[in-house]
Design goal:
Largest interface: A-B, 32 and 42 residues
Shape of chain A: globular
Number of domains of chain A: 1
Largest sheet of chain A: 2 strands, antiparallel
Strand order of the largest sheet of chain A: 1-2
CATH architecture of the largest domain in chain B: 3-Layer(aba) Sandwich
CATH class of chain A: Mainly Alpha
CATH topology of the largest domain in chain B: Rossmann fold
Distance between the termini of chain A: 22 Å
Number of helices of chain B: 17
CATH topology of chain A: ABC transporter involved in vitamin B12 uptake, BtuC
Distance between the termini of chain B: 24 Å
CATH class of the largest domain in chain B: Alpha Beta
Order of helices and strands of chain A: HHHHHHEEHHHHHHHH
Oligomer: heterodimer
Shape of chain B: globular
CATH superfamily of the largest domain in chain B: P-loop containing nucleotide triphosphate hydrolases
Chain lengths: 326, 530
Amino acid sequence: MKQWRFWFVEHRGTLMALVIFVVMFLIYASNHPAGFGANMVQTASNKGVLLAFVAMAQSLVVITSGIDLSVGMVFTLTNCLASWLVVGSPAQVILGIIAVLAVGAVCGAINGCVVIYGRLQPIVATIATGAIYYGIALALRPFPGGTVNETIADALTGKLFNFIPASLVAMIAIVFVVWVPFSRSVAGRAAYAVGSSETAAYMSGVPIKRAKFFAYTLSGLLAGTGGLFLTFFTYTGEAAYASGNAYTLFSIASVVLGGVSLMGGKGSAIGAIFGALAFRTIGDLLFVFDFDPLWQPLFQGVVLLLAVSLSAFGLLRVRNRLDWFT
Amino acid sequence: MVSQKKFCGAILVYNGDGAALVEIKPILRMAGVSKRYGGVRALEKADLEVRPGRIHAILGENGAGKSTLIKIMAGVVAPDHGKMLLDDTEVSFSSPAAANKAGIVCIFQELSLIPDLSVADNIVISDPPTRLGLIDRKQQRKIAEQALARAGAEDIHPLSLVKDLPLSRRQMVEIAKALARKPRILILDEATSALTVADVTKIFGVLKRLRNEGLALLYISHRMHEIAELADECTVFRNGHKVETYKAGNKTDTQVVELMIGREYKNVFPPKAERKTLENAPVLQTKGLTWTDRLKDISLTARAGEIVGLGGLDGQGQRELLLALFGVLRRCSGDILINGKKVIINSPVAAKADRIGMALVPEDRKTEGLMLPMTVRDNLSFAALRRITNSGIVNRAKEQKLIDEMIALLAIKTASADIPVGSLSGGNQQKVVIAKWLMNQPRIILLNDPTRGIDVGTKQELYVLLRKLAYDGAAILFYSTDYDELIGCCDRVLVLYDGKIHRELKGAEITEHTLIASALNVETDRVSHP
């Protein structure tokens, strides 16, 4: 086999998600009343990146064959925290941002420690920690409110050179700062190994604990970044339970749509990003076709099912039925 | 020619064959090592000396303590008592990684490869080359290519995913991976059990070269002729005790086996079927069975009372043939006939149904044969639930009766039917897989290398059992990678080559010589025989 074939096999899930997103986005853009333009892309980007951050967060944990049901709550908690801290002088704002991201990372690290040292099932552990994070968020913001430094908020949600959406640039920057080094590091390789076969990883002397710790901590950091951006978009903090849970569930849908295997060991955060953007576009499609918003959940569900079954098409070609189970 | 060489502080004198004449100082010494699992004594005051430049074979039945001994050396389990001395310093390893650091690398029977990662990723997994903190992919590929070449497996592409490779290739990757860690002591636990003859030959060359480079090798295998070819010295274990260490070549095979099983060893293989059985009407027949490029125009027959062997090099379509018969492969062309009637089998459910009555003992008992965490009882019942249920409810009394019968028939050693099947030894696990199907009273039994990694005693029991099943009227299709088995067990052997039945051997024609010759697709007289 040639080199590119191996590359293609490795990135098939990600490419699939990219194609799904591009197709849906083109349908959306070509039917948009205002047409394809910088403003439309900016709005779409601002809506998309929030879920993209949370989906990236989810993908890191899913790669280790865990699942993080607290991402939405970390997202909510950091939103509430940012509405207190990211205010005042430029120095205070920077310190505030650092503090918010640090809290996100700490939340992730706590999840990691509970899973690694408590040896609890990730699904249960993160339901519990998620509830705790939400409790803290509620204590911080019993009622919606607070503010955020508008200069930085507008800068990060506006357009660069009147053309490129700043939020998209910020997300790409985060990909390069967080995901790219992680995926090429020993810890990242180990995360895939753990997800694929934890026994084999252990027997091969792979640093399992380090892999999980990094995956969960970076997951918290990414969810925290999402929470920070939410604050930039809304200028307020709100301990919204339903929205937090919705983000958790949508992040799982995005990850699957993005070609990350829930069995672990396969996929990438980039795929999760495209998955999230595609998922968001489903909602936008309703808007351009003038559907009653009441239909949105139903429609989203149907499109999600269709999109996920696209990746199952390969199963039709399977000629050894045992391949269905691997 | 005699040469001298200084090594590890000892003077070695080599004769012309490269075998050392003078005692060498051991690198690793285990003294009085004991280990218990719950109430079971796995190892009792075991001693072992491992010397550089030697291949040391460890022999014993499953449950003799070999695995525990190795696991202690490799840092997987900690001993309860006793000492382990590496270069005269006492050591204890907290993890496999710690043992690797000390230069002890083990190739385990259960493969330790990560299925979703590439071959290159796997080879460097424990210590990937890095540049600026990130993994250096170019360097990694170079290391992988070198390691694969050292293991004689240049045909494996370093970028292919491990899960896409067949078992025999994976085992070669496993060996390459071990070599990439530059071990001082290399332990091979049944490392050749899934390899093809050609690979085994290559690996033996590699192992001998490593020995001459001064590595200490520990070799665990149930294949006597491999040990005879490789080992310099041998140690036999039985019931957790070390029985004896001896120089290779000082004992006959029979003596060795008797040391292992602690009793006299004779009549390994039961007598074969009477000639008239071979005139029975065929129970199973295929005509022109074809699937992708792996099976080409397979036409065969199997009669009641007959054991038909499938031979040939590994990966010539034997596994696919069994899977095709069992309804696992899609879009096969050609016909399958049961008792002369054409049938369509499109799933294992259909294959095991009464009108066909097929059973398949699969390649990998741990993933395809058993639900390891579930009990012996549950595992035994799965295939035959229909027989023990009344309107969908399991009849416990009926189930118990059948299970008791099976445990007795196959002499399955288990403390109770209600313990997880994963806690049994390998041989007993395999017995459960077979018993599970016997519960369903199959008329056609397909066996995919059923004795892989099983001890001599259990193997012998299985041979007797198979013959009994055949005598009771079953038709048996038996794929084995072990030529001795094909010779000893089978009434006929179909040798496959490149997806086709290349040759059919009957009765006295079935010899090691003809099997190897037809497996390699060469004329019989052109094979040079030692």
